[in-house]
Amino acid sequence: MRIINLEKRAIIILLIIGIVAIVSGCVRYPGEHEPEPGEPEYQLQITVEVAGEINTDDGIYYIGLDTDGQTGFGPGSDIDYWEDNYYYIKLDSAGCYLYPKEESSSSISLNSSYTIFDKEKKLQVIIALSDLGDPEGSIGINVVTTDSGGSTTYDYLDDNIYINTELYAEEEGISSTNLEDDEADFDIIGAKVEITN
To answer: Which member of 11, 19, 105, 159 has the greatest number of CB atoms within 10 A?
Structure first.
């Protein structure tokens, strides 16, 4: 009888040890920075609204992204200055691409990460924060529309949008410029930026 009780106790103790080991997960050593299994990656969701319709046949839509974390110094309306200084998204007739700050790096296709909706008035792009070098702090954002050659600027936000890289953060920006009716497709009404997972 006693042997059976000892065997039952041993089995129960082994089961408890097994359950504790499974619940606590793998051993981690100091200095390891690997993400936890199943940890969601933060994403930046940018929604741009225009007065007309998104029209990539006759123009280009740019979104500049400053990841330095300093407010007040984000991308302005001069897209020629963006190269080597900011990440930027470019939507034109060739598709949607994220261009890195580093000149030697290649662009990333976002063709499966953008949508045009709400009667073709809104463009929404979603990118992983890790594609921006995993920025900490805040990101400065501007939206610029140009002609199809990228040489004539039609519209841009009144001020850069600055968003903290915290989950569920939201910010908005507007453009108070009113373009002529024939340029309504490039007349930016505003932009909304969110951190999601």
So the answer is: 159
